[in-house]
Specification:
The structure holds two protein chains of two kinds. Helices cover 0% and strands 50% of the residues of chain A. Chain A is built from no helices and twelve strands. In chain A, a hairpin with a 4-residue loop joins strand 8 and strand 9. Chain A is globular. Chain A starts with a strand and ends with a strand. By secondary structure, chain B is mainly β. In chain B, 0% of the residues lie in helices and 50% in strands. In chain B, the strands form two sheets. In chain B, strands 2, 4, 5, 6, 9, 10 and 11 form a seven-stranded mixed beta sheet that branches. The chains are: A mainly beta, B mainly beta. The interface between A and B is medium-sized, with 29 and 28 residues.
Chain lengths: 115, 116
């Protein structure tokens, strides 16, 4: 069975500082990997996804993530945080070779951006 | 309106009552999903559907029933609500391609359910 671990349920950064949100997966075969963002009182929206093309994936709002097979990681980064980035971020995996398109989510990381 | 909608957005009910949460999507996506979101658990899959009349259990199906007679609708019913079912419920949909696992899921705005 696949699983996802997000280290740090709360992360706080200063505006303009680097954002780093950590995600590690557990799967015998590298899965499809996703990062979703949830703003207050809203549903989730896709930031970016890894499907096996480039290992460095660029997403919306200046975010990017790098797939590292040796570390089973898919950490999310943004060079310079903005106040509007304050939200909850979820890492998710979907199995290759079947599985019905189901996503398994991590427990989420709440990002706070301070002035 | 185009997209994926959920109704009601907020619902308060009592233990033992039956509650149905509605989900409607206008994209004709094959796949639809129901998740619940609880603090410390992230989102957990309740049920999903690959097409009309095809449904399957997810991680936490107990106490819930789904049906899908039309592609665009995927209602979730709590047959006898319990306090442990107090949660935020999200519906999602996605296309069906050859490599299904890579498809993005599109989420509705959620229904906040409180069971007293």
């Amino acid at each position: 069975a696949q699983s996802v671990t997000q280290l740090g349920s709360h992360v706080s950064v200063s505006e303009g500082a680097l954002v780093l949100l950590r995600c590690n997966y557990s799967s015998s075969v590298p899965p499809y990997l996703f990062w979703y963002v949830q703003y207050p009182n809203q549903g989730l929206q896709l930031l970016l996804k890894y499907t096996s093309a480039a290992t460095l994936v660029k997403g919306i709002n200046g975010f990017e993530a790098e797939f590292k097979k040796s570390e089973t990681s898919f950490h999310l980064t943004k060079p310079s945080a903005h106040m509007s980035d304050a939200a909850e971020y979820f890492c998710a995996v979907s199995p290759r070779g079947g599985g019905g398109n189901k996503l398994t989510f991590g427990t989420g990381t709440q990002l706070k951006v301070e002035l | 309106d185009a997209g994926i909608t959920q109704s009601p957005r907020y619902k308060i009910t009592e233990t033992g009552r039956q509650v149905t949460l509605m989900c409607h999507q206008t994209w004709s996506h094959s796949y639809m999903f129901w998740y619940r979101q609880d603090l410390g658990h992230g989102l957990r899959l309740i049920y999903y559907s690959a097409a009309a009349d095809i449904t399957d259990k997810g991680e936490v199906p107990d106490g819930y029933v789904v049906s899908r007679s039309k592609t665009e609708n995927f209602p979730l019913t709590l047959e006898s609500a319990t306090r442990s079912q107090t949660s935020v419920y999200f519906c999602a949909s996605s296309e069906s391609r050859v490599l299904a696992g890579e498809n993005e899921q599109f989420f509705g705005p959620g229904t906040r359910l409180t069971v007293l």
